Amino acid sequence: MTTAYRAPGRVNLIGDHTDYNEGFVLPMAIDLACTATVERRGGDQVRVRSHDVAGDVEVAADGRDDPLDVSPGWGRYVAGVVRVLADRGRASVGIEATVSSTIPVGSGLSSSAALEVSLALALLAAAEMDLPPLELAQACRDAEQLATGVPCGIMDQLASIAGRRGCALLIDCRSLAVEPVELPKELAVVVVHSGVARSLDETAYASRRAECEAAAARHGVTALRDVRPEQVADEPRARHVVSENARVLEAAEALRRGDLAELGALLSASHASLRDDFEVSTPELDALATALEESGAFGARLTGAGFGGCVVAVAPRDAAVAVAERAIASYRAEGGCEARAWHVHAVDGAGRVG
Ligand code: GLA
């Protein structure tokens, strides 16, 4: 008998480059997902095939294989998950599994977090082990870091695990408290891929994080979360983090009040801050965000790490498709790439299916 585990991707409504500064984020788990189907359990090897990417992956079930030595490249995530679970006491039980994903790779929609979480659930079940949700998220975040060398934060894995149908998740990345915030019925969340794959430029992400840590040290605090706006008025990187944290809290409030115009304005302000202060946007992401705003969205911003990938927009529900179509047409007319849009819905977090 086969068992399958499904983990959703996520789109971040607002709050980027804040998670590793112990700040706030407002993502939602979306109806694009990775599914890991276990065909056989036992033995001492973890063998995984992908429906979407070439090359079979095989690693030792005890976690001894160094993720960075594994090929094909996507096998690094498999090895990363196997290793972090072994470190947390998972018995060395092999599986044969197939993974299949509807999340576009390299888009900023957390295809890798969904792969890690779905596989982790499959591996834990095979070894009859359970991890509390927060530990599972931390383990998968550690797996991502091992597999990529990028010092990413906790948002993606936690959003995939803690998702709630119909809700965005206000996450305090210091306490890791997750508060679901209901999305108003008249709100549509549209994700548009710029057509330029994100190269989560390891150096740029890591160097932004290092700049934030250096700024926190200069101000004598453990994380930029604890710095006041007036302290960083002349420091663009830190200014982004501090202003973005405030916008996340205001956006959660705007959602609760159903104030969609205010929510949109906050998204657009976030994009400007990521573009000008944090400098992680691209001309394509800027053009697409503007096209969405001019096509009737309440607001739009790059989502995730930046450097390519997707823009998220909030729009009136009954106009979502028209807004996306108009924006894609004008983006193309202005010389942009072939863009693709999804009207996404907030779904429950990862779990067993079937
Ligand atoms: C990537 C990382 C997250 C977060 C975002 C930026 O998605 O994996 O931890 O830092 O970038 O907000």
What does this entry show, briefly?
By secondary structure, the chain is an alpha+beta fold. Helices cover 38% and strands 23% of the residues.
Main features:
single chain; 354 residues; alpha+beta; six-stranded mixed sheet; four-stranded antiparallel sheet; 23% strand; binds alpha-D-galactopyranose
SSE diagram, text form:
Layout: E1 3-12, E2 24-25, E3 27-41, E4 45-50, E5 57-60, H1 75-87, E6 95-101, H2 111-126, H3 133-148, H4 155-162, E7 167-172, E8 177-182, E9 187-193, H5 202-218, H6 236-257, H7 260-276, H8 283-294, E10 299-302, E11 310-316, H9 320-333, E12 340-344, E13 351-353
Parallel strand pairs: 4-6
Antiparallel strand pairs: 1-3, 1-13, 2-7, 3-6, 4-5, 7-8, 9-11, 9-12, 10-11
This protein binds alpha-D-galactopyranose (GLA).
